[in-house]
Design goal:
Elements: H1 4-12, H2 19-29, H3 32-36, H4 40-43, H5 51-61, H6 66-76, E1 80-81, H7 90-93, E2 102-106, H8 110-113, E3 119-123, H9 130-145, E4 149-152, H10 158-168, E5 173-176, H11 190-199, E6 200-204, H12 216-227, E7 230-233, H13 241-251, E8 255-258, H14 269-276, E9 280-281, H15 286-294, H16 318-326, E10 332-333, H17 334-341, H18 345-357, E11 361-364, E12 368-371
Parallel strand pairs: 3-4, 3-7, 4-5, 5-6, 7-8, 8-9
Antiparallel strand pairs: 1-2, 2-6, 10-12, 11-12
Length: about 375
């Protein structure tokens, strides 16, 4: 039997099928294995599948063999997750565009993947001022000492400072790359890269040996935002990639914080713009920031051996009751509920909507649901 992960890989090889369409496919058919065997007419029912995309699917799907492709890919890329894997980062899976393949190197900490250990993204300019460097070091150190994992992009400047400070404080850090996980960029960060492999993780949606490309880095910013409970923008001009990360964070329902600066400082213009749009201030009292970040709810551990709480509601149909039984008082991601019920994603989505209208279920940002 071909594993579901093989179909995530196979679908990702078809030109024109990106993370968003893959997510829609999975939600519409329940599994990508089912979608792989769907007819052209059935695929046309999925939003975003126009005539040209359908033609590409028909032409290219017949030439791909998921099981063989998956085996070959494993030989060339020894460590990767697909959304079908239990270890795939849960917070990233909640987003509308999770990478179909997430490659990694380093030391995996399962609590991070399950969303039980808080991760905070720190981003900013490649040319920070002394002010930006000082505050990045202070905040990264404080976060690491208080049990947070620092996520950034291993670029020059703010990214580099955040990684180094977190590790010096004895904490963990995750670098999201715009290259393959075996390609070091910028090359001057080769020593930093080696340190991260022993005190954290490097991840990427690009396979091994992928060189740097200017189009990769804006896309990887969505992964930084998706992995993190909150994004801190330390110093950023108006055209900084850090603002792209902040935009993704807002779309994903994450909190965004920005370090204020002088109105005539070029490196602070992006931060000031974020603050004017509603981002929270990073102030001198770091204890207050840590308290606010600590107040962000984490995903609680879900023991597979624990039977779901039973709720006797005679007014519910068997299908609605089945979905209701899969939901806990804590917020659970949509995919987990689908997995627990064993129902098609479309059926679960419809049932959740009905339960929401009946007042039994509440939807939270990131396609998470909990009992009201």
């Amino acid at each position: 039997m071909v594993e579901e992960g093989a179909y995530w890989l196979a679908w990702a090889q078809i030109s024109g099928i990106g993370p968003v369409l893959l997510r829609r496919l999975q939600q519409h058919f329940g599994t990508l294995a089912t979608a792989w065997n769907a007819t052209k007419v059935q695929l046309g029912e999925v939003e975003g599948f126009g005539f040209q995309t359908l033609e590409k699917v028909v032409q290219q799907r017949s030439r791909l063999h998921p099981e063989q492709l998956f085996t070959k890919h494993q030989q060339e890329n020894s460590h990767f997750w697909t959304p079908a894997d239990a270890d795939y980062p849960r917070l990233l899976l909640e987003t509308p565009s999770p990478p179909p393949i997430l490659y990694y190197r380093g030391e995996v900490e399962l609590q991070e993947n399950l969303g039980q250990k808080p991760m905070v993204g720190i981003v900013g300019t490649r040319q920070p001022s002394e002010y930006g460097i000082r505050w990045t070091r202070q905040i990264s150190t404080a976060l690491a000492k208080n049990g947070f994992t620092v996520v950034s992009g291993m670029a020059e400047g703010i990214d580099t400072e955040s990684h180094i400070a977190a590790m010096k404080a004895g904490g963990r850090t995750i670098a999201v790359l715009g290259t393959g996980v075996d390609v070091i960029y910028p090359h001057k960060n080769r020593d930093l890269y080696k340190q991260i492999l022993t005190a954290g993780l490097v991840v990427s949606e690009y396979p091994t040996k992928t060189p740097p490309d200017r189009t990769h880095f804006p896309r990887r910013n969505r992964i930084i935002a998706g992995l993190s409970r909150a994004i801190l923008v330390m110093e950023a001009p108006l055209k900084s990639g850090a603002l792209i990360t902040a935009t993704y964070a807002n779309e994903f329902g994450r909190d965004v914080y920005a370090l204020p600066g002088r109105v005539d400082d070029y490196p602070s213009q992006g931060c000031l713009k974020l603050l004017s749009q509603g981002a929270s201030f990073i102030l001198k009292e770091l204890d207050e920031l840590l308290t606010m970040l600590g107040a962000i709810p984490q995903i609680d551990a879900i023991e597979a051996s624990t039977a779901p709480e039973q709720l006797s509601l005679p007014t519910l149909s068997p299908e609605l009751q089945r979905v209701m039984d899969a939901i806990a008082s804590e917020a659970l991601p949509f995919d987990f509920i689908v997995q627990q019920t064993g129902m098609a994603a479309g059926s679960v989505s419809g049932a959740l909507l009905q339960l929401e209208l009946m007042g039994f279920v509440s939807q939270l940002p990131g396609m998470r649901y909990q009992k009201s």
